[in-house]
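Data deposition worksheet. Section B asks for the primary sequence of the deposited chain exactly as it was used as input, without tags or linkers unless they were present during the calculation. Section C holds the resulting structure in token form. Section D is free text for depositor observations; keep each observation to a single sentence. Incomplete worksheets are returned to the depositor.
Section A, Depositor: J.P.
Section B:
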Amino acid sequence: MPILLLSQRDVVRLLPMHDCIDAMAEALLAVAQGEVVQPLRQVVSLPHRRAALGTMPAFAETLKSMAVKVIAVFPGNRGTAYDSHQGVVLLFEAEHGTLRAIVDASEVTAIRTAAVSGLATRLLAPEGAGDLAILGAGVQAHTHLEAMLAVRKIRRVRVWSPNQESRDGFADHEGRRHGITVESVASVQSAVADADLICTVTSAREPILRGKWIAPGAHVNAVGACVRTQRELDTHAVRRARLFVDSREAALSEAGDILIPIAEGALDANHIVGELGDVLLKRVPAREVGGEITLFKSLGVAVEDLAAAHLVYTRAVDRGVGTWVDLGGERRDGE
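Section C:
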């Protein structure tokens, strides 16, 4: 049975940010409408090192497809030739359960994560927001800048990283790539001063962004911390914000930015106003009063990988992209 192999380069070619943002909107709308099945991810932590292997399955009725992402997360890859996320998305059709495609997961993860933040910014940030602070200078910093440029007219960009060489390199590369000025700054406080868009995309284990530094009316995409024992924002930052998530179930199981303040008694689960799908369905408003801070806590859920892989596969078939291989799966004679 022919299976389509799609490389990292194929994903970049077939999954432009604008289109991925729209695909994420459709996927999270389907979640809100009860058309998606996606259990919590399973994670195997490697003993004696900061690394893990995760699996993320999902089924979407609207796409008539299933997928599972198998991803190895190795933060220690920074500074090497390897992305911190290594793996594949396996895409199946949902009529007979046949495997359709094996898609590079490093690029799917990089693009779709930023695309969901782009969607959150489109829904939650003030229309005139355009002073952007990016905390972190890795893969997600690059894709998040692209996502922010896709949904808002960005007039200023500042980047912070604890590593000066990384932030300077980011500023130079992305400034030339997008034809804009990107400022490299030496502290988080100076990066976010008066910013109305903030993206935290670090591997920090302890808070780097303080609530007292966030300007009234700003929108924050908190992306980097994805386990219950780590966070990028302090408790004050979460308490003073109108909080949205991609999945309430996942957030209350995995998001240290939320779970640590809950454990401190500073807030409870009801502090989560809603999921992005609730905003898309107009079940809850993005903002209620002027000057509110909005916060999107991103974890990344399996339907996002399914939707991205499905779009890549469909376009690859239409455009003749990728490599076909025969992996079996057909019934043998006599069975």
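Section D:
The chain has a mean pLDDT of 95.
The longest strand covers residues 52-60.
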